[in-house]
Write a structure and sequence with these properties.
This protein is mainly alpha-helical and 265 residues long. The protein has one domain. Helix content is 82%, strand content 0%. The protein has helices at residues 3-32, 52-57, 62-88, 93-105, 109-119, 122-137, 145-168, 171-203, 208-264. Helix 3 packs parallel to helix 9, helix 5 (109-119) packs antiparallel against helix 6 and helix 8 (171-203) packs antiparallel against helix 9. The relative contact order is 0.14.
Length: 265
C-alpha cells in the first residue's frame, strides 16, 4: 500500500473513537433526551409508554459510551471492508494466483510482473517483490541455487511482513470492544438497579410498578452492550477469516515462485 494511504489509515483510526463519542453524546442529549419523549415534556419524568428513545435515555451516562462503542464497531467494520477489498486487488485472489502459476510455469516472468502491476493489492505487491528478486538473483553467478532460493523466500517473507500490519490494523479494537461492551452494559445495569432500589427506599412503601420500570430501564444497558459485543465478535471473525485467506494466497504464490525457480534451474 502507498505511504499516503497508510498515513490516512493511521489518522483515521486515531479520530474515529473521539468523533464517535461526540456524536453519541449529541444523539443522547438532543435526540433521546428530547422533552417530547417523556411525560409532561420533562426528561426528569418517566418516558412516554412505547417511546423507546426515552427508555434508552433513562439508561444513564453509560448509554452514550455504549453508543460510541457501537459506532466505532460499525465504522471500523466498513473501513476494514474497504481496506481488505483494496488489498485483494482487481481480480479474484484465487484466479490471480492461478494466473501467476501459469505464467511462471511458462517462465514468463515479465508478464507475471505486469500482471501484478495490473492486479494491485497486497497479494500482488508480495508476488511482484518476489518476481523482481527472482529476476535479480537469476543471473548472479556468485550465488548457489540454494542461496537464490533462500533469497527469494526471504523476499516473500519480508514483503508479507510489510503488508500484514495494514491488513490487521484496527482488528484489535474490534476484539477489545467485543470484550468490554458486555461489561459496560452490565455496569450500566448495576448502576440502574442501584438507582431504582435507592428511589424505592426513599419513597417508603414499595412500588412494584416503579421497581419494574427502573429494572427495565436498567436492563436496556445490558441489551445494548450484548448487541454491540455480538456485532464486534461477528465482524472480527469475518475479517480475520478474510485476512487468513489472503495470507494463504500469498504463501501459495510464494511457494509457487520458489518451486518454479527450483524446477527451472
Amino acid at each position: 500500500m502507498s505511504e499516503f494511504f497508510k498515513s490516512f489509515q493511521n489518522a483515521f483510526s486515531a479520530m474515529v473513537i473521539p468523533i464517535a463519542l461526540v456524536v453519541a453524546i449529541i444523539v443522547y442529549m438532543i435526540v433521546m433526551g428530547a422533552p417530547s419523549n417523556f411525560q409532561g415534556n420533562n426528561p426528569e419524568n418517566a418516558p412516554i409508554p412505547g417511546n423507546y428513545l426515552g427508555v434508552i435515555y433513562k439508561g444513564g451516562f453509560i448509554v452514550p459510551i455504549l453508543m460510541c462503542l457501537l459506532l466505532t464497531v460499525i465504522t471500523f467494520s466498513i473501513e476494514r471492508y474497504i481496506t481488505i477489498k483494496k488489498a485483494s486487488g482487481k481480480l479474484n485472489v484465487l484466479k490471480f494466483v492461478k494466473h501467476i502459476k501459469n505464467l511462471l510455469n511458462r517462465n514468463q516472468i515479465d508478464d507475471a510482473i505486469a500482471a501484478c502491476e495490473d492486479q494491485k493489492g497486497s497479494v500482488a505487491n508480495v508476488v511482484r517483490s518476489a518476481m523482481i528478486k527472482y529476476q535479480n538473483v537469476e543471473p548472479d553467478a556468485s550465488m548457489s541455487k540454494e542461496q537464490k532460493l533462500i533469497a527469494i523466500q526471504k523476499e516473500v517473507e519480508e514483503a508479507t511482513s510489510l503488508e500484514l500490519p495494514s491488513l490487521e490494523q484496527n482488528l484489535v479494537i474490534l476484539a477489545t470492544i467485543s470484550s468490554i461492551a458486555t461489561l459496560m452494559g452490565l455496569l450500566g445495569t448495576v448502576l440502574g438497579m442501584i438507582r431504582a432500589f435507592a428511589a424505592l427506599a426513599n419513597a417508603g412503601a414499595p412500588d412494584s410498578v416503579a421497581l419494574a420500570t427502573g429494572i427495565s430501564e436498567a436492563l436496556i444497558n445490558t441489551a445494548f452492550g450484548i448487541g454491540t459485543a455480538a456485532i464486534a465478535v461477528i465482524m472480527y471473525n469475518f475479517y480475520t477469516n478474510k485476512i487468513d485467506k489472503l495470507i494463504y494466497s500469498i504463501d501459495e504464490a510464494g511457494f509457487t515462485i520458489v518451486q518454479t525457480y527450483a524446477a527451472h534451474h
